[in-house]
Design a protein that fits this description.
Length: 747
């Protein structure tokens, strides 16, 4: 047998490991978001619980193995070489597709991606066979269309069902317990926890144990026949244990419920979704073993049809355990897993904060419709009824920046409802995506909990629509790309294998670079909230210094690039100015209000100067961005460069800035502001310079020494530089007053 197939097996093994890494990074959100969002326990405890669930679940894996082998196509219609190319196309596509979603922090379904990748590559290989040899054959002879449609429809129907169920159950739960749930939870907490454990147990039985190939048919039949008795016993025992822990040992039993739900979902993930990543490799390995035996016996593998893949399979536990270990390591160390989790938690969190998505026309229309409906309901609802429900949804105010994104009641509802829906679908033989169900339940509970208020609704809804749109694109892209890769492999053979592997490596490196840049941008938005007057003074001092230094450097560099027509340099300076402007805009949007809330009641004056410093810095960065953007456009359009005289005029402004700033920096360093009036006098002289330079440019324009666009850009830069000068003066004055206020308060 040719060595090419051994190479393909080794490649598939490597791709399976990569697929486990990118797959876990995406699917970790399924079982981590509720415990992380509610801060039920320290992160290491949550990850440890999930680790135990993955280890147990990997031993019971097998739920999707048949789909990977024969769910969407008829393996008996394909020869061994064709099957190997088919599975290789699936694995290559899956690694790239999931890593794209991870890079941008969007949760998607590994089940949907696998199904459509199998479908796409099977269609490609089938069409190649028809075109090459079976001219009279039809595509329906190769593709299991009926089962494919059933799988796909079941997955997408679950989206609406999960959202509605999550909304209804959370609304009822909040009406019962309210946000001040601890009072009523003393009396009904054990009962509530018992019901949650029933849902979790039902989930584990149907989604993990009965789906496993390790459970015998007799055991499965016995459990199905006595499921009601099992659930009643679980309810009574768990309720009793929770009551003892709550009342005698003063344990927060909601934490136990959330961690138990996390472990059960982790078990399900490892038990069923694991084979989304290694299923194609396992099927290819099985095919390779069969083909090796045939070749050893002297038979031909070119016409060896893979009928054996249609037969039931028991996965080798060693491969499953090895896959489980890779998943655990990824869970602990993958930064992209944290990124995907942040997306869901940020969309579901209670209260204000950094919004990862902007508004859209669709989200604005939906919010307006919801507001109109709410006003209508207020009119027809009796006042007493309305006041009662309003009282149940009065959130407990918290100014703690480290507070949980939502409480343990919502976390327990997320896990219990997700578990029940997934287990119910499994018991009814309906295929479901755990990602779709858990995400939509979380969005439904956040809607019912009024987490989507007027301040955040349009952004959250845009985020949800973006994720759902990504799901639809998952199916389309998975099918299309897998089909293209399949065609490439069938036509290119070994050359296509090597070429596509190089492409995978290059793309993974590029996506890693993009993710690092996104992480840096996100970390800038999530700067720590300041709660100390001296810390505010120190940060503002450093920020003022860096802003002025950066402004002077970019301003001078832009003028020089205009004169030399250096397109590369001016593009770089424009990007720097844009980053500076974005950072101050984000600081003003996301940091100012939380910082003011943390200040002491007697620090109002300090808060006022802090707000001024942020506003003045933002205005400086905005003017700088206008200058660099206009200059970049000017150079890109190849207009006439500035003359030496024009450049000298504008540089004189920069030199005046530098003189003022150097004197100011010396004052800050020495903490001696007695010569502050000297700075004010120099600022007056700078203002007079702008008038003189404007007159000079008007004279040049009248004398036709500069063109229209040249004059417009010069005057535009001059005007923005005047604004920068004014704001720098305001900035230094605000920083001086902040220093005086902090010093007076300390003394």
């Amino acid at each position: 047998m040719s060595n090419i197939f051994l190479i393909i097996i080794l490649v598939l093994l490597g791709l399976a490991v990569l697929d486990l890494v990118v797959g876990v990074s995406n699917d970790a959100v399924n079982f981590l978001n509720s415990s992380i969002g509610s801060k039920a326990a320290p992160l290491w405890v949550i990850l440890t619980v999930a680790t135990v669930g993955i280890l147990l679940g990997s031993l019971f894996s097998g739920g999707m193995m048949e789909i990977a082998r024969s769910g969407v196509f008829f393996p008996s219609k394909f020869t061994f070489p064709e099957i190997m190319m088919l599975f290789l196309a699936v694995m290559i596509t899956d690694v790239i597709l999931l890593d794209v979603f991870n890079t941008f922090g969007l949760p998607t379904s590994t089940t949907v991606s696998l199904v459509f990748e199998l479908l796409g590559s099977a269609v490609a290989v089938s069409l190649f066979k028809i075109w090459e040899s079976d001219a009279g054959a039809s595509l329906s002879e190769y593709i299991n269309a009926g089962k494919s449609i059933a799988i796909i429809s079941g997955i997408f129907i679950s989206i609406a069902i999960a959202f509605v169920c999550g909304t209804v159950v959370m609304y009822i739960s909040r009406v019962i317990f309210s946000f001040n749930y601890k009072i009523l939870f003393k009396y009904f907490g054990a009962l509530w926890s018992g019901l949650a454990f029933v849902g979790i147990a039902y989930f584990v039985i149907f989604k993990v144990l009965l789906a496993s190939t390790l459970i015998s048919e007799e055991t499965t039949a016995f459990i199905n026949a006595n499921i009601g008795t099992f659930l009643w016993v679980i309810f009574l025992v768990s309720t009793l244990i929770m009551a003892v822990l709550q009342h005698l040992f003063k344990v927060n039993i909601l934490v136990i419920v959330v961690l138990a739900g996390t472990m059960s979902l982790a078990m399900s993930f490892a038990g069923n979704d694991l084979v989304n990543f290694i299923g194609p490799f396992m099927a290819a390995l099985n095919s390779f073993q069969i083909a090796s035996d045939v070749a050893a016996a002297g038979g031909s593998i070119d016409n060896l049809y893979m009928n054996a893949l249609s037969e039931p399979v028991k996965a080798d536990w060693r491969y499953l355990m090895g896959a489980g270990i890779v998943m655990i390591l990824t869970l602990w160390f993958s930064k992209k897993a944290r990124t995907v989790t942040k997306t869901e938690v940020s969309l579901a969190r209670q209260g204000e904060g950094v919004e990862r998505f902007s508004s859209s026309q669709a989200s604005r229309a939906l919010v307006r419709s919801a507001i109109d409906f709410s006003r209508l309901m207020e009119k027809i609802t009796p006042s007493k009824v309305k006041n009662f429900f309003e009282s149940r949804f009065e959130a407990v105010p918290s100014h703690d920046p480290n507070a949980p994104s939502f409480d343990l009641i919502r976390a327990s509802v997320n896990l219990t409802v997700s578990a029940l829906l997934i287990s119910l679908g499994t018991s009814l033989k309906l295929p479901l995506s755990t990602t779709y169900v858990t995400f939509m339940v979380a969005m439904g509970t956040s809607l019912a909990d009024r987490a989507w208020g007027r301040e955040s609704a349009v952004y959250r809804i845009t985020g949800v629509l973006t994720v759902i749109g990504g799901w639809l694109l998952t199916a389309l892209i998975a099918f299309s790309v897998s089909m293209l890769v399949g065609f490439a492999l069938m036509y290119g053979k070994i050359y296509a294998v090597y070429g596509l592997l190089i492409l995978v490596v290059v793309l993974l490196i590029q996506f890693a670079s993009v993710h690092r840049r996104r992480e840096r941008k996100e970390s800038a938005k999530n700067s720590p909230v300041l709660n100390d007057e001296e810390a505010i003074l120190l940060q503002c001092t450093e920020a003022v210094k860096q802003t002025i230094e950066t402004t002077i450097r970019i301003y001078g560099g832009t003028l020089e690039a205009l004169h030399t027509e250096d397109r590369k340099m001016i593009r770089k300076l424009y990007k720097e100015a844009d980053i500076l402007n974005t950072s101050w805009k984000d600081k003003r949007t996301y940091e100012v209000l939380p910082t003011l809330r943390q200040l002491q009641p007697g620090a109002l004056e300090i808060g006022q100067y802090y707000v001024q410093i942020v506003d003045f810095s933002h205005e400086i960065s905005k003017s700088l961005r206008v200058i660099t953007e206009a200059s970049h456009t000017y150079v890109e359009n190849n207009h006439e460069p500035f003359s030496r005289e024009q450049l000298d005029d504008l540089m004189s402004i920069s030199e005046a800035f530098i003189d003022v700033f150097n004197e100011y920096a010396k004052m800050v360093e020495a903490n001696d502001y007695h010569s502050y009036n000297n700075i004010r006098n120099k600022q007056i002289k700078i203002s007079e310079m702008f008038s003189e330079l404007t007159k000079k440019q008007i004279k040049r324009a009248k004398a036709n020494e500069s063109g229209t666009r040249n004059s417009i850009l010069f005057l535009n830069i001059l005007n923005e530089a005047k604004l920068i000068s004014l704001q720098i003066n305001n900035l230094m004055r605000a920083r001086f007053r902040l220093f005086s206020s902090v010093t007076n308060k300390i003394t």
